[in-house]
Structure formats: C-alpha cells, structure tokens
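Narrative of accomplishments. A recurring question from our advisory board has been how the design workflow behaves on a single, concrete structure rather than in aggregate. To address it, we present the structure tokens for one chain from the evaluation set, followed by the sequence designed for it. No filtering or post-editing was applied between the two.
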C-alpha cells in the first residue's frame, strides 16, 4: 500500500526516517555495487515520489524548498538513492507545465500509486548536451515511432515509465512517456562510473518503439515564457551535492571521535581534542552550513517565483540556484577528501570505503559545469542580464 503524504512536515519526517534506514548499508552497497531496488521500493511506498503532485489531483504539492531538503537528507545518507529520482521529479514537473488534462490525470494517478519515472535524455557522440538526435516519427492516427540511443539514463533501470527526450520532424523538443516494458525498448545496465556506482545510469536503446500520441508532451513550449524547469532540476542537483558534503562531514567527525589518533605534538590523548583537528573541522563545518543556507535561499527563491512567475522572478530563482550549486560543488569535493585529512592513514583502508564520498562528489558535480553558472551570475549582477531559458540553469 502506497502512503499519500499530506503536507511539507510529513514529507520531511518521512525523508528523515528513510535516510536513517538508507545510511546503514550505503557503504556496502557502493563497495559491492548492490543496486538499491528494495530501497527504491521503500521510497515509492513512502509516498515521497508524489509530493509534488498538485493538490487538485490528490497530492501534497509541497514547496520546492521542501523537495530540496528531502533530497539533501537522502543524499547525506546515500547520494545514489537521492540521484535516482531526480529525473522523476523533473518529468512530473513537465507534466504539470505542459501535460493536457488527460495526461495529468493519468500520470499523476500513477505517481500517487508509487510508480517511478526514469529518464532517457542525454546522448553520446553529439555536438553538445542539447544536441538531441532521437526522433519521433509520425505514424498513423496521430501516433509516433521512436528510435534512438540514450546514455546516462539514471533511473531508467528501476522505472515504471521512461520519459524520452526526442525531436519531431520540425525539430521541436518533446517528451514521450514510454512504459518500461514497451516492445523495442531495452535498458542496459552498463554504467561504470568511479562514483555514484549504484545509480545504474546506463544506456536506453529505442528500436522503433510505438508511442501513442496521448503519451507525448510538447516540452519546447516550456521555454517560450518564464519558466522554472531548469531552476527546479538544478536545485535538486545542488541538494544532492550539499547532502554529500554533510554526509562526509558526519562520517569524518565520527571517525575522529572513535578511531583517529591525535598527533603526538598536540599533547592530547584524543584526536577530537587536537587543536589543529578542531580548527579544520570548524572550517569545514562553516562551509557545509553555508552550502545548506544557500540551498535554503535557492529553494525560497524558486517558491517565490512559483507564486508570482515573471521573467524577473524566474531569473532571480535561476541565479539563486546557480549560486547554491557553484558554492556546493567544490565544498562536496573538498569534504570527500577531508575525511582522510582528518582520519589519517588508517582512514584510507579499503574496507572502510570512506573514499566513496569523494568519488560520489567528484562524479555528481560533473553533471553541469559551474564555470558557466558563474558567467551567468556575473552578467546578472553586473549588467542585469537575465539568464537564458535552456533548462540547465
């Protein structure tokens, strides 16, 4: 039986409980590349995957800031589990914005029942990240045939529905929602990244997949006016990075308290009393708390723009999210490395698998280049130039 979450407070309470469960075996799942199927079933049953369904359709329609905090809590426990449903929430949002009444009714009922969306978005070997070559070819009676190859398809292996980004004959961008078991659709578990090992972000093969017209959403219309599609997607990525940093800090502190030795010159019997370790932990804690604060500001900006969506409010939300992510990315990587700085040689033992924090941070922060976000922030602050509407900001 799938729980239906009522409000923001319940969403956060459920996320905290699940995070506690997921943290227990996170290191073992990573070390053994044990895919988190049972954990995702728990996530579905908890009702967390439906918290952005509009109230008119039976959902809690929680604040964007609440969704970000849910992701941060889950990522602090296991960022693999946090990353898997990121696309789920993105494509629920696509339906909110561009789905027709029948599409919203059908798919929101699916989501409330615990069904999961994956993604088939990125393509390899193209000019750039938005050069989509997968095509929706018109068939009979308004239906389509879909062919192409997708990579980095996080969530697809565990999905009930796989949203596929594809272009029609006029080159406009659409999302086709395909059942996981559709004839001609194959999900290949070939993800072999050094980090985020259990996201199963592999390949989706589409070989003349039949697509009813009723399952196709005109995504290109999202970008014809002020939009929060990119801000929400990036907010969740930022939340994952902030969660990785917090999880690494917690584990580093626990290691220092229970296993690390003080440096002999410190004059103390416990590493936790070593003044230089105390100094470094304090510095790192400030950075993590600052990242958390910026994430909160970004979530509030997205919520403010949702309440009054204009070009200016959408821009302010995108810039706030970009600021949070630009700050959080290097903090997550630094925290992943600082675990060893604080723990000493014994913290590098393979059996502890403490290197997963750095591997996860380094892998996930590659998702979008922070250097371009800084450019947009600079143009906005200095010249009042609004950021572009391309869905990645």
């Amino acid at each position: 039986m799938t729980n239906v979450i009522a409000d923001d407070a319940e969403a956060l309470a459920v996320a905290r409980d699940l995070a506690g469960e997921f943290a227990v075996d996170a290191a073992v799942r990573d070390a053994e590349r044990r895919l988190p199927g049972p954990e995702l079933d728990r996530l579905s049953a908890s009702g967390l995957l439906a918290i952005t369904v509009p109230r008119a359709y039976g959902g809690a329609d929680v604040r964007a800031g609440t969704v970000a905090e849910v992701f941060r809590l889950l990522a602090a426990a296991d960022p693999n589990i946090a990353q898997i449903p990121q696309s789920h929430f993105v494509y629920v949002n696509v339906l909110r914005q561009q789905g027709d009444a029948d599409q919203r009714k059908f798919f929101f009922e699916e989501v409330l029942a615990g069904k999961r969306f994956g993604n088939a978005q990125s393509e390899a070997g193209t000019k750039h990240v938005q050069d989509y070559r997968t095509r929706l070819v018109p068939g009979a009676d308004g239906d389509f045939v879909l062919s192409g190859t997708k990579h980095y398809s996080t969530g697809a292996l565990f999905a009930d529905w796989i949203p596929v980004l594809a272009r029609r004959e006029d080159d406009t961008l659409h999302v086709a929602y395909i059942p996981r078991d559709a004839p001609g659709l194959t999900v290949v578990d070939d993800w072999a990244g050094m980090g985020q090992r259990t996201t199963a972000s592999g390949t989706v093969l589409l070989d003349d997949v039949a697509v009813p017209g009723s399952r196709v959403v005109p995504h290109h219309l999202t970008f014809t006016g002020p939009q929060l599609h990119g801000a929400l997607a990036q907010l969740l990525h930022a939340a994952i990075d902030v969660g990785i940093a917090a999880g690494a800090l917690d584990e580093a502190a626990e290691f220092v308290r229970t296993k690390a030795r003080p440096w002999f010159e410190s004059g103390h019997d416990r590493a936790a009393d070593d003044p230089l370790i105390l100094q470094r932990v304090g510095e790192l804690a400030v950075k993590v708390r600052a990242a958390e604060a910026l994430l909160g500001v970004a979530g509030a900006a997205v919520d403010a723009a949702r309440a009054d969506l204009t070009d200016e409010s959408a821009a302010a939300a995108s810039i706030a999210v970009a600021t949070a992510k630009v700050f959080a990315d290097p903090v997550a990587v630094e925290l992943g490395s600082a675990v060893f700085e604080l723990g000493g040689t014994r913290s590098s033992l393979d059996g502890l698998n403490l290197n997963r924090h750095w591997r996860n941070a380094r892998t996930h922060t590659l998702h979008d280049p922070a250097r371009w976000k800084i450019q947009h922030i600079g143009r906005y602050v200095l010249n009042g130039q609004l950021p572009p509407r391309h869905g990645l900001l």
